[in-house]
Amino acid sequence: MNPSPVPELRVGVYGSVPEVYPNCFRFPEVHAGCSYPGWCIEVVSMLTQFLNITWTLVLLGNRTDKADWGVLKEDNTTWNGALGNIQRGEVDTVCLMYQSTSIRSQFFDFSTSMTTARSIFITREPTEEFGEYVFRTFE
User: Fold this and answer.
1) Are the CB atoms for 95 and 20 separated by under 8 Å?
2) pLDDT per residue over 45-79, tens digit each?
3) 109-122: per-residue pLDDT in tens?
4) How big is the chain by its Cα radius of gyration, in Å?
5) Buried (b) or exposed (e) across 26-58, using 16+ Cβ within 10 A?
6) Residues 64, 22: contact at Cβ < 8 Å?
7) What is the overall mean pLDDT for the chain?
8) 108 CB-near residues (< 8 Å, 6+ apart)
9) Which helix (H) or strand (E) holds 133?
10) What's the CA angle centered on 43, arms 4 and 10, to 5 degrees?
């Protein structure tokens, strides 16, 4: 009995830096002439090479589109954006940074974390007035 072939992994992408850099020639096709396609595409490429499975990129918008991560619609059962593409079976995964939330976990499976991005907030230089507001909380 022949084993059934492993299906091709369909990876949805936007030109969303740093996950994907759309400046590679023939984007979204991945090829040797593209020195830095983006961290997500590089990780998917390494994983699929290790697992010996084929994969293809599915362009979810044009090169200038902002990524549409997706939100739960008012019916509380369907998603739009990239999460909707996964839910409808148009792609198997997407190259975007997601956090696992209780709502998303009801609809989607999450891998274990492979990389971590720390959040850093940039603020203006504090003024004396700002300090006064902060210390009022202790009055």
Assistant:
1) yes
2) 888 889 899 998 888 987 666 889 999 999 999 99
3) 998 877 677 778 78
4) 20
5) ebbebeeebeebbbbbeebeeeeeeeeeebebe
6) no
7) 81
8) 83, 86, 87
9) helix 128-136
10) 40
